[in-house]
# Entry
Amino acid sequence: MIPRYSRPQMASIWEPQTRFRIWFEIEAHAADAQAKLGVIPAEAAAKVWEKGQGAVFDVARIDKIERTTKHDVIAFLTHLAEIVGPEARFVHQGMTSSDVLDTCLNVQLTRAADILIADVDAVLAALEKRAFEHRLTPTIGRSHGIHAEPTTFGVKLAGHAAAFQRARARLVAARTEVATCAISGAVGTFAQIDPSVEAHVAERMGLSPEPVSTQVIPRDRHAMFFATLGVVASQVENLAIEVRHLQRTEVLEAEEFFSEGQKGSSAMPHKRNPVLTENLTGLARMVRAYVTPALENVALWHERDISHSSVERMIGPDATVTLDFALARLAGVIDKLVVYPANMQKNLDRLGGLVHSQRILLKLTQKGASREDAYRLVQRNAMPVWRGEGDFQTLLLADAEVRAFLSEAEIAELFDLGFHLKHVDTIFRRVFGRA
Amino acid sequence: MIPRYSRPQMASIWEPQTRFRIWFEIEAHAADAQAKLGVIPAEAAAKVWEKGQGAVFDVARIDKIERTTKHDVIAFLTHLAEIVGPEARFVHQGMTSSDVLDTCLNVQLTRAADILIADVDAVLAALEKRAFEHRLTPTIGRSHGIHAEPTTFGVKLAGHAAAFQRARARLVAARTEVATCAISGAVGTFAQIDPSVEAHVAERMGLSPEPVSTQVIPRDRHAMFFATLGVVASQVENLAIEVRHLQRTEVLEAEEFFSEGQKGSSAMPHKRNPVLTENLTGLARMVRAYVTPALENVALWHERDISHSSVERMIGPDATVTLDFALARLAGVIDKLVVYPANMQKNLDRLGGLVHSQRILLKLTQKGASREDAYRLVQRNAMPVWRGEGDFQTLLLADAEVRAFLSEAEIAELFDLGFHLKHVDTIFRRVFGRA
Amino acid sequence: MIPRYSRPQMASIWEPQTRFRIWFEIEAHAADAQAKLGVIPAEAAAKVWEKGQGAVFDVARIDKIERTTKHDVIAFLTHLAEIVGPEARFVHQGMTSSDVLDTCLNVQLTRAADILIADVDAVLAALEKRAFEHRLTPTIGRSHGIHAEPTTFGVKLAGHAAAFQRARARLVAARTEVATCAISGAVGTFAQIDPSVEAHVAERMGLSPEPVSTQVIPRDRHAMFFATLGVVASQVENLAIEVRHLQRTEVLEAEEFFSEGQKGSSAMPHKRNPVLTENLTGLARMVRAYVTPALENVALWHERDISHSSVERMIGPDATVTLDFALARLAGVIDKLVVYPANMQKNLDRLGGLVHSQRILLKLTQKGASREDAYRLVQRNAMPVWRGEGDFQTLLLADAEVRAFLSEAEIAELFDLGFHLKHVDTIFRRVFGRA
Amino acid sequence: MIPRYSRPQMASIWEPQTRFRIWFEIEAHAADAQAKLGVIPAEAAAKVWEKGQGAVFDVARIDKIERTTKHDVIAFLTHLAEIVGPEARFVHQGMTSSDVLDTCLNVQLTRAADILIADVDAVLAALEKRAFEHRLTPTIGRSHGIHAEPTTFGVKLAGHAAAFQRARARLVAARTEVATCAISGAVGTFAQIDPSVEAHVAERMGLSPEPVSTQVIPRDRHAMFFATLGVVASQVENLAIEVRHLQRTEVLEAEEFFSEGQKGSSAMPHKRNPVLTENLTGLARMVRAYVTPALENVALWHERDISHSSVERMIGPDATVTLDFALARLAGVIDKLVVYPANMQKNLDRLGGLVHSQRILLKLTQKGASREDAYRLVQRNAMPVWRGEGDFQTLLLADAEVRAFLSEAEIAELFDLGFHLKHVDTIFRRVFGRA
# Structure
């Protein structure tokens, strides 16, 4: 996570002030529950809220205390005591630092997930808008980078929309994975604290209680969370690479929007580089890279070791901030993508109709030609086209042997793009529920 | 995937015979649908089933044909024609090879998922059985590898059971991700084939139609599938490492079952190595390794490139066979784990009661000692224990200043293991729905 | 590693027969050294060689024994005793299984490295041949997929040649990393065996003694080995992707060789897919995937745990066989690559000379035009070209204001490709030592 | 890279001020070379040095310009012109931004490598010091976490020293990989700039010219660099995990140094957690995670795409800063490690001499006992020891059947630790060149 690839809303989740605020809320809610149980005085819990609720925590002060105590939660509690006063001694009773740290991390991750889900919604909105705009814009479909059969640019975008619908569902599931709370003590036995405290804090923080925590919340949850982010990042890359291909000089079917002020030159009008989507390709690599350490974090020793902590201090912000930035950038790229239908048509026409050769072949056999003859007839008309010596349809029309099987109208129909577009509505309805 | 780490049922999913059988079924179901549409004669479809249903496909023959055609589906169809006869020419009409290949892969992956889910069920059964067996077997909980507070061995296992319940749910979700079928033609436009064929094949093969395929089924689905396997493998590693730690010479709280015939020596009775769980640690690394190539497979070029294919030919079997083997091995390890409650107790007692020091500290302050005094009192009795010069409880009982705050009964109670076990039922009910 | 992507020579390194042969050699050389030390009778060592040297080991028999002993080295030694007779009891004295296993693995890896180095040599030979062939074949250089400035196809290939020269050096270094031998006993202290045995075996097996082994040879060596393979595989991908781009329908500057028999259709002459290089892209993902488990293998517990073993049983063959196959395929692709200089020229000309706009701009300022004027002049001639309304050079020649600064000859010179090719010799000399 | 895990010297390499300083030097040296060639006036080059050498670049100002130009190098050059004056127009002539960016990155990476090498030297110094200190401190060697045979703590450390000697050599090689300079223009043809400029800049910046650059320096170099860092990080993890194991409550053969002020409690003297080495385990995961994106960066499109850039902006600092921090922390941990030889001895004695059972077995056969008898004799004395009913040596001495083969002195000798330590000198000499 670096400022260049950060957006403020997501970055703020990982700022110390936010963390301390969440820690405070966890402690204060726990105090409420403890007061209700009669473990601590109700007035103490009330005072914690009264003094702490509006407080701004002094990050520098807490850092300074931590340099002595070498313990972040103790440093925070020490500072909290400065704010709350003597009643602060009732805070954190029966709790262990990880109760606060792990519950806080999960609050942060669920908030991050909410932003990412909204980001995907923006990508989806852009894709849907542009898909309908180009619902029937013919373009060549390519397999292996080679022209295959016609499709529409809208269908291409609909495919990516379906993919991002899946991305959304995955993020929702990933959010649920990490939306748990643990207030269970040193090894998770609730020896020092009643399970009702956990239930109360969970409910107030929008989480559910972790069934079994062992000082820590089990890290297979976080592994699943970050793995999901890696999948979504790969989907970002998939669409980014499509744009990069479309913007190639030889293809030029679409271009990233180029802002007016931007240093792109009309002295070199061809030199508009797809730098945004190239950047997305790189960012996807990074989000993907955070998956493996998250997986390696699962196998902690016994009831916990703390090896996961340094990893999470890094990938928590790195993965969420980077993916948020990437999704937002992607939404913008799609929303403002400059599309060149004329170039799509030009590319479609580029092979002089050869993309229809398979239809011709099939039709000839259906009309009675042997496979061998059909193949020979198509071949002898295809080769000149391939050498740039004519147009496929014209040549076929002029081939008497072909014409013995196919009328002019039949040949024309085989070159009709409508044949390829007849199920666009079906596809759109599947994705968007409307066509 | 190597024979040493393979089990027949999972391995057979990836055998050529199985693959050809699935291809046949896809083709035959598609023929039925085409016949219903009137595209091909009903008798042709019937003949395909009649001749092909019971046939054993000649793998060597297909391989030989492929060496000429350099195309696996064409080689299969050629061989199928040898079996079916002239009606075979109606097979595969309007379809593209990927329709068969991708739908087949997803059938294989869903079958693999079914086995993996059953494997997890076996792990869960073993965990539940042993958890209840050791529901109240006291053992020391460890954080950072250091003794923390008591828990029970059953609670430890319950935690892993909860984790594998999550693993199960993840595998069910992963199965759904890949349970799709595509029969949509060269670039997914259904130009040559009606969508109803896809619907029919999907229904018969236990899949749902892929909303938008582009010659291929989008690979974010498979990325999610293999990422999930990586998470589950990491969970296997987590439990494997627990067993390895418990079997250490200095700990010896549990041991892998050692079969009678096995070359383990009673001349060196200590030399029983946790080789099964060490092996699981390694296998987890492998299953995890297959996640990244699956993620890299997502960004195919345009409507498809075929870079994913070689990856899937390898990780399809490798990841599923290895994880199947690992889960089955894990279930056996847990089911037959030799547990040493006496050693658990010995380790619990090892520190002469120091693991209770925090309770003493807390109680002293609750009884009116200042924090400083309480700390001093605990410390002066803890240090001799640490040096091996006595038992903590005995020393405390003999310390007049301590006794000014705490009676003999109170001190005894603070050393009572029951304090730590009082919520075992809560935890068990959360996980198993019963205690 | 699957047969489809295997070549016999590399695969044979990993066959049981090869492994047992190497085990035999290690044991027999060790026996020689032990005999020389007087630890075992000289006749025993001689007998081992006499009986074992020409023997074919019965893999099925050894497997059967292993099923009982659950120990592969013991199974082998039992079988060896069947071959050698009573003198076999002098074999393996003072040694530990890992002495044999680890030294054998390193013999296998060094042999694998030798093949990989030869593979790279073949890639280099193909690159050099084709580079010189196309030393001065002009082609457009592209940054961001967008036309930049002219270069030659030979220069492109020279760049990859330089990269594979580095790959070669890296493989040589990786080979040295793993070319070590350990015969040091249960925890590496030489308690039961003299270091001179290790020295002798090392020398005979073409290895050097491992400075400190701890039952096992330290796995940072193997991590470095597999990491290097991952880098080389990424270089394969780099060149593979170049070919894939060049073969795109819109670019078509080169094509993979298409064998006569191959099912590629002249009825669809455009439909030649770069399947070999797409395949290489996938294979590169796999070889890269084996890097992380090799890195995770480094942190074994204490003097060794055996978690690395299952990983190596898989990635040993998988990584080396796959990379060998990939390099050999790449050498063939380059050697037989069908290059289309005419299409390269056509693409170069595609933008009507706009790729020279920067030279014009620079020259105008050098001849006295202000930056603003120069830019305006270039722009007003570039835009019509970009819209397809003319050729840049022609328009510039017709622009009086431009002509006030530049003569016809000067303009022509600015469009001279020779300007871009003047240092081709320098580059070739750097790479090939000749031009 | 986060402040918590950063050290200033390494972090400063990646600060904007450092980057701009390096950019300036590259530009100024290039200007010198251009002046020597007569391309620009010598006075201009001199002025650039005169004004720029001592200048502090205004980072905020450059950032502000970049927000308009969206181009970092142009923003820098604009600011440089503000400092240098009109002569600045001669700067950067014939160069492309990547000439500056890539050469700068390699300067940064070589400086980072220098620090990392010095870090490894500190680790090596600590290991050597402690290895000699504990050269003959007996300790149990463990395979599979199970007691195997005696070794010394010094030998353990010597093994890690040998590993870090390899780490050092790898870092030196990695440094060489990235110590190259490219000043070759838009597609690497030197069209606009003479190769002598590159040679001059390379020499002045301590680099060598890149044989073939293609606007960018080929990324296989950087892949190798970051892969090497991943290997070294895994070696850090290896040693870190050793310390974590030794500090376990049940083992307690060593402990991380615990600073006086540190909040570790003598009320709970056992609760000293190996948090530094747990932290190193996590940091190793991160450095390893950066390997794959670096590998994925190799396959840029054609002469370059810019997908690598975002990756490098992140992993450049992240990998080097984190590894630097980890190595420095590791050196401190080893240097100040608290070692408990008495506990090592206690653990050695823990199994009542059973670790010597294999020696007894061997000796009995050497003295004429059949394998079966020897095994039976060892077994019947081992089992009581294993059950805690006696000491192995005592029991053997009392076993008449054993004594028929072995005298008291012979038995005593078989329990002599010296047997295991006799080659410690050999090992030390191999690693340290002295014993």
Chain D has three domains: 1-93, 96-352+419-435, 354-414. Chain D touches chain C through 81 residues (CB under 8 Å).
